[in-house]
Design goal:
Elements (H helix, E strand, L loop, with lengths): L15 H11 L1 H33 L2 H10 L7 H8 L4 E8 L2 E11 L2 E7 L5 E8 L7 E6 L2 E6 L5 H5 L7 E5 L8 E6 L10 E6 L13 H15 L6 E4 L5 H7 L6 E5 L32
Antiparallel strand pairs: 1-2, 2-3, 3-4, 4-11, 5-6, 7-8, 7-10, 8-9, 9-11
InterPro entries: ETEC_3214_dom
Keywords: Membrane, Transmembrane, Transmembrane helix
């Protein structure tokens, strides 16, 4: 049928894509803006993926470096707030003793499954002593201490206990406890403070809070148990903890040190000694929930 006068064919509506194309053809600035916006979005997405991926990689494959940096910023004498800044909130806080320094509190941190940090604080929240214990053979933080007029280093789960015993042989002490039953096992060499160390005391050794890394383990648990019982009967017949001058440690006691690498390092603030710990130095396995502690399997 012929079109009547005044009628026009119905115009086809443009699609959204066609309208967008016509708009961009007429507006060069809009095109530029859209391209820039797309580029910014792409770069932002890439950066987010890079940062997220980098964080994941560091947490799972290169985590040690970050933890070493945290520990390097800590020292006995700092405030508890400084420790929390690096390690987060402590997992355990226990009132441990009343001393000339006042009421003390033991603060135990577990920043990662691989290690523990223990800090004893005074009423002003000053850390008067602290200890680091490594639970992983791949976590080897290093710490320096004064030996005479020079500094030496000890690396956890790497430095043989026997190799650092010479630093305490003449003027230091040994503190130990061992039992064949389910109980803490520890063996520490303690270097008292002097003018060179600004009266800061040091200690290193073994605690069964974590696995002991054998260097050349040649002595059974029965040998450890027998040695400890004989030494306690000799030096502390009325007690149960061995605490003797280092130079009094016999050959077997020194040989036992050769079996393992130290897994714990500790230090005090100036003019403070390790008596601030009522029992063992560092985190006490008996205060830690069994699900977190490796106590039943650690030690010789």
């Amino acid at each position: 049928m012929a079109e009547t006068e005044g009628e026009h064919p119905e115009e086809r509506r443009l699609t959204l894509g066609e309208r967008f194309k016509k708009l961009t053809e007429r507006s060069l600035p809009l095109v530029v803006l859209l391209y820039v916006s797309s580029a910014v979005t792409a770069v932002s997405t890439f950066i987010t993926a890079y940062v997220t991926g980098g964080h994941w990689y560091q947490q799972h494959f290169n985590w040690q470096a970050g933890e070493y940096t945290k520990l390097a910023k800590l020292q006995a004498g700092y405030t508890l707030a400084k420790f929390e800044e690096q390690l987060g909130r402590p997992s355990i806080q226990v009132a441990i003793s009343k001393t000339s320094l006042g009421n003390l509190t033991q603060n135990t941190f577990q920043p990662r499954d691989e290690y523990w940090v223990d800090a004893v604080t005074d009423p002003r929240n000053r850390v008067v002593a602290y200890a680091v214990t490594s639970c992983s053979p791949d976590f080897n933080p290093s710490f320096t201490y004064w030996d005479g007029e020079r500094t030496r280093a000890v690396s956890l789960n790497k430095t043989a206990f026997s190799s650092v015993f010479s630093a305490v042989h003449d003027a230091g002490n040994v503190k130990a406890f061992y039992s064949g039953t389910f109980a803490p096992h520890y063996y520490f060499a303690i270097k008292p403070g002097n003018s060179i160390s600004v009266n800061r005391s040091y200690a290193w050794g073994l605690t069964n809070l974590c696995q002991w890394k054998a260097i050349e383990s040649t002595h059974s648990s029965a040998v450890w148990d027998d040695w400890f019982i004989r030494q306690v009967r000799r030096f502390n017949p009325k007690g149960y903890i061995l605490s003797v001058p280092a130079k009094e440690v016999d050959k077997l006691g020194r040989d036992l040190m050769s079996d393992y690498a130290v897994n714990t390092y500790a230090e005090t603030a100036p003019s403070v000694d390790f008596d601030v710990y009522p029992d063992q130095i560092g985190a006490n396995p008996m205060l830690i929930p069994p699900a977190l502690s490796q106590l039943p399997w650690a030690g010789p």
